[in-house]
Amino acid sequence: MYGPGTSRVRRVFSACGPVQEKEPNDSYQQATVLKPGKLAKGTIANPKDQDWYRIDAVSDGTISAKLGGIKDVDFVLAFFDKDRRELKRADETTVGGDEQLLDLGVSAGTYFLVVSNNNEKSANAVQIYGLETKLDAPAGREREANDSALTAQVLEAGGFAKGHYWPAKQLLAEDPEASEEDWYSVAVAQSGLFLLNVDVSEVPKVDAILEVYDTNGYKLKELDAGGIGEGESLRNFGVRGPGKFSLRLRSKLKSQGNPDVPYDLTTELLPYQGLNEFEPNDQRADATPLERESISGTIAPAGDQDWFKVSSDSGTKSLLRAELSGLAGMDLTLSLRDGLGNEIAFVDNMGKEQPEVMTGWGLTGGDWHVVVMEKSGKKSDSRQTYALARKVTPWQEGLEWEPNNSSGTVQTLKVGESVDGYFAPKGDEDWYEFNLYQKSVVVLELPGVINVAAAVTLFDQEYTELAAAKSAKPGEPAALERELDRGTYVVRLAPGDAAQNNVRDKYSFRVRVK
């Protein structure tokens, strides 16, 4: 009647003797007294029979109750507080099935367990059911009912709770088919900036979703990286203390639950030291300041965007180089945004699991943003961390200043001087302009760059093409010589194949006269 393992439990209870229901016990006034940890026995005298049991708790704890099914009866098991407000209800099985409630939180006071039947045709007034109860200490345990933000269980940041996705359906919700939910209110008592890590262990048969809400009920984050039987992890979630926010843990699909295997909800609170992204940083307004040379982050959940803010002094010109490590199973991309969030550059040079590098981008004062994303928007893994390194150096003559990839952003170069730059990212073009003050033979020299067969194209000030030259093969130089009249001229440097690029080796382009 009770399933595997029940006989041992029954022997433990029977040592103190079972409690027999005392009819009539159809209301709270007539409830049979049941001490936590005792076994109660009773019958369903008719299809509408209700058996009330009163539990007088003397201290905090959690109670679990299991009701053994009998022939013809479709049991319903419910839990009420002293004011007869129903807190939890289980009706997971049909005729002849067991029902159970787990992790029922109690404090000193009176509570009720109610046994009823949901089969109008039942006719079994003789067979005895068994109502098993168990009392556990409250430390580290879920305390039902915690099915809403209003009834969220208080959990100190850095704390732990063991709970169950059970019952699978939340029968007291507006939608009785709604999945079970467990809410936790996490308090950060200290002042300052912190990182919160949350781990939810795997539970067979359950596809868990972990959500984070602020004190106003606004959802800040949703994690659904794992599938059925897999856990969820939140990493580097930014917390400003003192403050509170809520965790909502639920099963993804209706009627998913597991009364046999609990989840472990573990939280960790760490001082923020600028070494990790400060989640949520999914938009410009929440960008994590990138003040150190390197910072780490994670892509989770799927579709995650990580924004990092780079600030530069006004009145100065600087160059930004950003390097992003690869992640197993993912294709990461980099983009550079201005202070308003407008995209200036997008870098997707490499493929899956490969690093990405942004080179030579010019910063003039104010705030700029580097954004990390997974290309497909469908992959995530909170267990892996990427590294984002940045280097900001003063710009000086002789260095490329991106963006200079069009005639509208052409960079000035003096005759007799050279400029160092990169053919990167893919599809990059670098445009330079020089002035010739008398008729001369001009030589354009571009040494070889590994992996790039470069093309040099000369235009007049009306952008009419005058001449062109190309490397014989990747890694070899390209040169162009032509007699020119006095005037302004423009040169375009570009790989012969748009897929060619090199973020490691600079070119050094020179314009001179013979």
Shape: elongated
Number of strands: 35
Report mean pLDDT, rounded to a whole number: 92
Distance between the first and last residues' Cα: 102 Å
Assess the beta-strand content as a share of residues.
over 45%
SS class: mainly beta
Examine the coordinates and then state which fold CATH places here, giving the name of the CATH topology of the largest domain.
Jelly Rolls
The largest sheet is:
7 strands, mixed
Number of helices: 1
- At CATH level 2, the architecture of the largest domain is Sandwich
Helix content: under 10%
How are the SSEs ordered, and which strands pair?
Elements: H1 6-14, E1 19-20, E2 32-33, E3 39-42, E4 51-57, E5 61-67, E6 75-80, E7 86-90, E8 99-106, E9 109-117, E10 129-136, E11 153-156, E12 160-165, E13 181-200, E14 208-213, E15 219-223, E16 232-251, E17 258-271, E18 288-289, E19 294-299, E20 305-312, E21 318-324, E22 332-337, E23 343-347, E24 356-363, E25 366-374, E26 381-394, E27 411-412, E28 418-423, E29 430-436, E30 440-446, E31 454-460, E32 465-470, E33 478-484, E34 487-495, E35 502-513
Parallel strand pairs: 1-3, 2-4, 11-13, 18-20, 27-29
Antiparallel strand pairs: 3-10, 4-9, 5-8, 5-10, 6-7, 6-9, 12-17, 13-16, 13-17, 14-15, 14-16, 19-26, 20-25, 21-24, 21-26, 22-23, 22-25, 28-35, 29-34, 30-33, 30-35, 31-32, 31-34
Can you characterise this structure?
The structure is a single chain. This protein has 514 residues and is mainly β. The protein folds into four domains: 6-136, Jelly Rolls; 153-271, Jelly Rolls (Sandwich), CATH 2.60.120.380; 284-394, Sandwich (Jelly Rolls); 407-513, Jelly Rolls (Sandwich). 2% of the residues lie in helices and 51% in strands. It is built from one helix and 35 strands. The protein has one helix at residues 6-14; strands at 19-20, 32-33, 39-42, 51-57, 61-67, 75-80, 86-90, 99-106, 109-117, 129-136, 153-156, 160-165, 181-200, 208-213, 219-223, 232-251, 258-271, 288-289, 294-299, 305-312, 318-324, 332-337, 343-347, 356-363, 366-374, 381-394, 411-412, 418-423, 430-436, 440-446, 454-460, 465-470, 478-484, 487-495, 502-513. Strands 11, 12, 13, 14, 15, 16 and 17 form a seven-stranded mixed sheet that branches. Strands 1-3-10-5-8 form a five-stranded mixed sheet, with helices on one face. The longest helix is centred in the N-terminal third of the chain and has 9 residues, at 6-14. It is elongated, with a radius of gyration of 34 Å.
